[in-house]
Write a structure and sequence with these properties.
By secondary structure, the chain is an alpha/beta fold. The protein has 17 helices and 17 strands. The protein has three domains: about 240 residues, 3-Layer(aba) Sandwich (Rossmann fold), CATH 3.40.50; about 80 residues, 2-Layer Sandwich (Transcription Regulator spoIIAA), CATH 3.30.750.210; about 170 residues, Transcription Regulator spoIIAA, CATH 3.30.750. Helix content is about 35%, strand content about 15%. The chain binds iron/sulfur cluster. Iron/sulfur cluster binds next to α8.
Length: about 525
């Protein structure tokens, strides 16, 4: 076995007095896992193509870190995309991107696995490969280079990144990655080549797509005709893998506790995976089916253990649609009971409008009452039917009324414009709904309250019923956003935030593009 690559910590440390938030590059946090590199068969860099603050908040990364490090034969470390000041300093001093645990450059790892959570971070993946000393194009990688993996929601649109990633995970990484590590270790022991290793993986481990073994074929007009399979051992169709039971699935009760600021620095308790609602624009709802639940008893146990290992003061009940967790009232009640003497709050970040909404302000009683965040998406019954979002205004208004009554000061409402069949009447209704949500405060006896209307642009996503639907052109999206802004002008209780149109268009290209888009990403 080759000796482990030397740490570059001294060279990283020398840059830290020139950059903002240097703690994010230091590692050494509580609960990080250190191992002797000589004692493991496979070394994995778990890479997040965004900053430390965002990546350390990502539950999927915590799960993979924990699950791989429980194995004695594997050491998983973390690496995040540096801010632009650190990137410039690293390039100027030729310091390679390295992991936080052992400060080993990425090029020295066996596997470098990226969590792709949204399309616009794709270019950060290339930045990290470049800084880490790994050839960007998979065709340029040599036998000694790591295998570059990518999973997460972004891997649902693999083709734009197919020239740069050796293996995409289609489905739940906690099922597919440990199985891949098993086969990879076996291939290493057997001295298999890079190509043979890839073939062993795709032929034996469900859920892995290696673009090397597939060639897209296009019609004369540029539309896609077929995907040619280049090696008979590669599957014709890549089977998606899913954790069968969330109840038995791994949960990281000892996550690394960040030193630097993070978006979410708290216990993220995944109560449920999948969503049964079937909103037609929602990719996560479609690709994460079916709905799998954790029991209340298990969630209590996990919360207790994680609290003991971290001391966090907030437990967030996370899932695609926590309001649909069937035993939410019981779960919240028991968590409050368990943690009430410990000054631990329970929060619910994603709220769907249903009959449970009016109970939510009471369920999260201990939490700082700033603003209630709700995603009605659209404001007319007609458009709700089009997108299959089954919500009722009375549930929305009664939920907000209850929140105001219990001391909440404001409401944030998330909408989309540009949806199929949308008219100006639908767009105008967004402002009417925002106004009504503000005015509900009068009914609650606290006077009109602040309502923020956040408007994003519809991006048709693959694997959804709207996947073939065209996006409105930029001018039209801007016009609809401006219509919301103009109608809200003059109402000082309404704040409007409009999502950047260019970013949405880019997201549309990256989520539905084919392999030819890779040249533009590069
Ligand atoms: S309720 Fe939310 S998560 Fe579920 S399908 Fe609709 S938008 Fe997606």
């Amino acid at each position: 076995m080759a000796p482990p690559a030397p740490s570059v910590w001294n060279r990283v440390e020398a840059l830290l007095d020139r950059v903002e938030k240097p703690a994010q590059y230091a590692g050494g946090e509580r609960n990080q896992v250190l191992k002797d590199p000589r004692s493991v068969a496979v070394r994995v860099a778990l890479a997040f193509p965004d900053t430390y603050a965002i990546g350390m908040s990502h539950l999927g990364l915590r799960v993979l870190y924990g699950i791989l490090n429980e194995r004695p034969d594997c050491w998983a470390e973390r690496v995040f995309c540096p801010w632009s000041d650190m990137e410039a300093a690293m390039r100027a001093s030729s310091v390679p991107l390295a992991t936080l645990e052992s400060h080993t450059p990425l090029a020295a790892f066996d596997l470098v696995g990226f969590s792709l959570s949204y399309e616009l971070s794709n270019t950060n993946l290339l930045t990290m490969l470049d800084l880490g000393g790994i050839p960007l194009h998979r065709r340029d990688r040599a036998e000694g280079d790591p295998l570059v993996l990518a999973g997460g929601d972004g891997a649902a649109s693999p083709e734009p990144m197919a020239d740069f990633v050796d293996l995409f995970c289609i489905g739940d990484g906690e099922e597919a990655l440990p199985a891949l590590v098993d086969v990879y270790a076996e291939c290493r022991r057997g001295g298999l080549s890079r190509r043979e290793t890839l073939l062993e993986i795709v032929s034996r481990v469900p859920g892995w797509y290696a673009p090397e073994f597939y060639r897209p074929v296009f019609h004369g007009d540029g539309t896609m005709a077929a995907m040619e399979v280049l090696d008979p051992r590669a599957p014709d169709r890549v089977a998606e893998v899913h954790v069968a039971s969330l109840e038995d699935a791994y949960y990281p009760v000892k996550p690394v506790i960040p030193y630097a600021d993070c978006i979410h620095d708290r216990i993220s308790l995944e109560v449920m995976r999948g969503c049964t609602q079937g909103c037609r624009f929602c990719q996560a709802g479609m690709i994460k089916r079916s709905q799998r639940l954790r029991s209340v008893d298990t969630l209590l146990r996990l919360a207790r253990e994680t609290y003991a290992n971290t001391g966090y003061d907030e437990i967030s009940l996370v899932s695609l649609s926590t309001a649909d967790y069937p035993r939410l009232v019981e779960l919240s009640g028991r968590l409050h009971e368990e943690f009430k003497g410990k000054r631990v709050n329970v929060s619910i970040p994603s709220l769907r409008v249903n009959e449970t909404l009016k109970l939510v302000p009471g369920l999260v009683e201990g939490v700082r009452r700033s603003s209630l965040t709700i995603a009605p998406e659209v404001a007319t019954d007609r458009l709700r039917k089009v997108i299959n979002k089954d919500i009722r205004n009375e549930h929305l208004y009664s939920g907000i009324e209850e929140a105001y009554r219990r001391g909440w000061h404001a409401v944030k409402l998330y909408f989309m414009v540009g949806l199929p069949t949308e008219t100006d009447e639908d767009v105008r209704a967004i402002v009417e709904m925002g106004t009504a949500c503000s005015e509900v405060g009068r009914k609650a006896g606290v006077g009109p309250k602040q309502a923020t209307i956040s408007v994003s642009n519809f991006v048709p996503k693959p694997h959804t019923p709207f996947q073939w639907h065209p996006m409105p052109v930029a001018e039209e999206l801007r016009r609809r956003g401006s219509l919301v802004r103009d109608l809200a002008r003059g109402n000082r209780r309404l704040k409007v935030r409009i999502h950047d149109v260019e970013r949405s268009l880019l997201e549309g290209v990256l989520s539905r593009g084919d392999r030819r888009v890779g040249a533009a990403v590069l």
